[in-house]
Specification:
Blueprint lengths: L5 H7 L10 H9 L9 E8 L11 E5 L10 E4 L2 H9 L4 E3 L1 H8 L7 E4 L4 H4 L3 H4 L17 H10 L1 E5 L5 E8 L4 H16 L11 E8 L5 E3 L2
Helix pairs in contact: 2-8, 3-7
Length: 226
């Protein structure tokens, strides 16, 4: 761990050492950390009791946050015919087929989400080597391979967040911006935690959610009582 900045150390000294805070108190404290030149992203980290090596204990999903993420989400869609028209009407930034695949092969990656109609997977499949490592590859499980491309575009534009556990069984995700008012942040975070709770694997013995912490891009973490 590199040497922490003076600013970071002074913020860390504000975090209580005794036990976690209520969600409302944690958000209030986090909001006092917003003294940077840019609007920091608020992130949640959830430590779970899953064994990430067991395939039947993988946690993966997506949730539409009630107040979005506070940033424009750039969405590209692989679709043709009526579905292409639906995607455009729903606000997709780019819609196409083989020519869009060629642009991506040529190095164009100026987007946050990639959605594909099922009949376009022949075109999208070969992009796996490029999109996969960046977490952009469409998949049925994530809801990004779907016949209802219009609905998917609207959800991502409204602030849909995808997440999956890492090898240590932790889940990390953005839940808003530090400029959001406290109530909106609290509602986004509650919606995220409640959704994760519904994904408890049937084979898990013992505690599912072990602890939750909140942080901003340049702030220390604050533990939250669940």
């Amino acid at each position: 761990m590199g040497k922490r900045s003076k600013r970071y150390r002074s913020l860390a000294s504000k975090v209580p050492s005794k036990g976690p805070l209520s969600l409302e108190e944690a958000v209030k404290l986090l909001k006092t950390f917003g003294n940077t030149k840019f609007d920091q992203t608020v992130e949640i980290a959830i430590r779970t009791g899953i064994d990430a090596r067991q395939a039947d204990q993988t946690i993966r999903g997506s949730v539409v946050l009630p107040h979005g993420l506070g940033k424009p989400v750039r969405v590209v869609v692989f679709a043709k015919g009526d579905r292409a028209d639906e995607a455009k009407a729903a606000g997709a930034d780019e819609v196409g087929g083989p020519e869009l695949a060629e642009r991506i092969k040529g190095g164009w990656l100026d987007f946050d989400v990639c959605i594909a109609a099922p009949d376009m997977m022949g075109v999208v499949g070969p992009l796996g080597k490029i999109l996969g490592p960046r977490g952009l590859m469409p998949s049925p499980r994530a809801g990004t391979v779907t016949p209802d491309v219009g609905k998917a575009v609207r959800e991502y534009k409204a602030g849909k967040v995808e997440f999956r556990n890492d090898s240590g069984g932790n889940i990390h995700a953005p839940v808003g911006k530090l400029s959001f008012d406290e109530q909106k942040l609290v509602e986004n975070i509650k919606a995220f935690i409640e959704h994760v709770q519904t994904l408890r694997p049937a084979s898990l013995k013992g505690q599912f959610i072990k602890n939750v912490s909140l942080s901003a891009t340049m702030s220390p973490g604050i533990r939250v009582a669940i």
